[in-house]
């Protein structure tokens, strides 16, 4: 895995409090020999409640048939279905141990039923995943088109199930189908479970989205990635914050000093992930080079299951105040922060739409559009990666404008789901350009 680390400012003024934002960018490789990779475990949990009748259930069946044909012999594959009750439709086991005609017959037998006990189906899917945990963990992919109306329905409680499973190396991803599902619940499962949340508006979208997500899950390049941050001065541990909406905890290292731990989870072949870390730096009384913290990135690389560690000392140069006054923040880091702010604005705008405040949502998005446009104009031609940064900002400006138009012209529920899909992934650093375009390209307003 390749690490690229940048500071928005690497020059600080002598004897002045300051703030430094660090952008960590992780690029997962595309491993050779994916055909010989370790087996993955994929359990698909399918909502078969009555609302799935017709095109939705047909699209899900088609996507499951395609999945059964593309997984490798060493992969564990299973399907759980739920309505008012949950049951195993296809037992999870290595695909080489399945009788494929029987698997396809079982998939054809998935028919719509009653109400929606989503938590019951999810719990059974997790149980199937636990039975088949391998060296690369397991993934549960949940598909639903409605609101949970039986079993556990509180998003925080169901998210807690996802968080517990994540600690057992089980990733949870979700796909919402149509515009009647509960995006708050599905987004919570994906966020807590270190997976992606996707919005599939139509039956065709659903079939394509299942294939895309499963393709990612079956092409992991990095598993169980962790970032550890250790400040040079232990007293400064509370001055370190994360701007992305990711989990963190404190642990003690071998010397008994506290370290911040951030679990990134798994990265797919060719994926790019980001993490923004903010340091409130107290005044430094000596000129020269100062290491503020050490980052350690630990992960297991596929297909060889090799443990790797990357270390990076985060350092700044302390200079007299008049020298520091002319510093220019790194545009790559400031752009990353702005894109994260745009993601959070989408979350707030989606909340406004759900509460019926279209004008509030539009005003929030327009303000963000102005910020993006201003940043786009401010990029200097001589700045590093100037063209790439302009492209990122222009694409984000187009998406914000698209969502603004949608908020004014389209059903609020549908536009809120698009905003939530964008926010859920961007706010957690899943800002991979190709995957972002793939997700956004399925609809326009």
Describe the secondary structure blueprint for this structure.
Blueprint: E1 2-7, E2 11-13, E3 18-27, E4 41-47, H1 55-70, E5 76-82, E6 86-94, H2 100-108, H3 118-131, E7 138-144, H4 155-167, E8 170-177, H5 183-192, E9 194-200, H6 203-217, E10 220-231, E11 240-242, E12 249-252, E13 258-268, E14 272-281, E15 288-301, E16 306-319, H7 321-324, H8 331-354, H9 358-378, H10 386-409, H11 412-426, H12 433-440
Parallel strand pairs: 2-16, 4-5, 4-7, 7-8, 8-9
Antiparallel strand pairs: 1-3, 3-14, 5-6, 10-13, 10-15, 11-14, 12-13, 15-16
Structure at a glance:
This protein has helices at residues 55-70, 100-108, 118-131, 155-167, 183-192, 203-217, 321-324, 331-354, 358-378, 386-409, 412-426, 433-440; strands at 2-7, 11-13, 18-27, 41-47, 76-82, 86-94, 138-144, 170-177, 194-200, 220-231, 240-242, 249-252, 258-268, 272-281, 288-301, 306-319.
Q: Care to describe what's here?
A:
The protein is an alpha/beta fold and 445 residues long. The protein has 3 domains: 2-32 and 221-324, Immunoglobulin-like (Sandwich); 41-217, Rossmann fold (3-Layer(aba) Sandwich); 331-440, Four Helix Bundle (Hemerythrin (Met), subunit A), CATH 1.20.120. 39% of the residues lie in helices and 30% in strands. It contains 12 helices and 16 strands. The protein has helices spanning 55-70, 100-108, 118-131, 155-167, 183-192, 203-217, 321-324, 331-354, 358-378, 386-409, 412-426, 433-440, and strands at 2-7, 11-13, 18-27, 41-47, 76-82, 86-94, 138-144, 170-177, 194-200, 220-231, 240-242, 249-252, 258-268, 272-281, 288-301, 306-319. It has a 6-stranded mixed β-sheet. A 6-stranded mixed β-sheet has the order 6-5-4-7-8-9, sandwiched between helices. α4 runs parallel beside α5 (183-192), α8 (331-354) packs antiparallel against α9 (358-378) and α9 runs antiparallel to α10. The longest helix has 24 residues, at 331-354. The mean pLDDT is 91.
